[in-house]
Write a structure and sequence with these properties.
The protein is mainly α. The protein folds into two domains: 3-66, no CATH class; 81-116, no CATH class. It contains six helices and no strands. 1% of the residues are buried. Mean pLDDT is 86; it is low at 119-126.
Length: 126
């Protein structure tokens, strides 16, 4: 979008008494915003929706309607292996305990075979 046009839109918003904040977004999000803006204004003869209005409305609306499934999808899309490991490490260090499943994974990762669940029942044939 033209920088001068964007500044004019921001000045209009300031005149309304709304405090404005800036955000950054990915190229993909910028394209999606442009597509949404085009759809919102297409056939709308009662005014013109600008980027600031669209983003503000979308965020407010989504914050009211977001559900657990959407939160899980968001968290999954931004899952960080190292952060998760660090969090699990802090939790284990604080509690002094580690789950059996995580212990088994750690043992396998460092080269120890997992103990057989039927170790006492196995017989060696001669």
């Amino acid at each position: 979008m033209d920088n001068n046009l964007e500044k004019k839109e921001e000045e209009k918003e300031k005149e309304k008494g709304d405090e404005l904040y800036r955000i950054t977004m990915t190229r993909e999000a910028e394209k999606a915003l442009g597509d949404m803006l085009e759809k919102a204004n297409s056939g709308f003869i009662g005014g013109k929706i600008n980027r600031t209005q669209l983003v503000s409305w979308t965020l407010i609306k989504m914050s009211q309607d977001i559900n657990e499934s959407s939160l899980q999808e968001l968290r999954s899309a931004h899952f960080d292996d190292i952060s998760a490991l660090e969090s699990l490490f802090r939790k284990a260090k604080d509690s002094g305990e580690i789950s059996p499943e995580l212990r088994e994974i750690l043992m396998k990762e460092i080269g120890f075979a997992a103990p057989s669940k039927r170790a006492g029942k196995n017989k060696v044939d001669k």
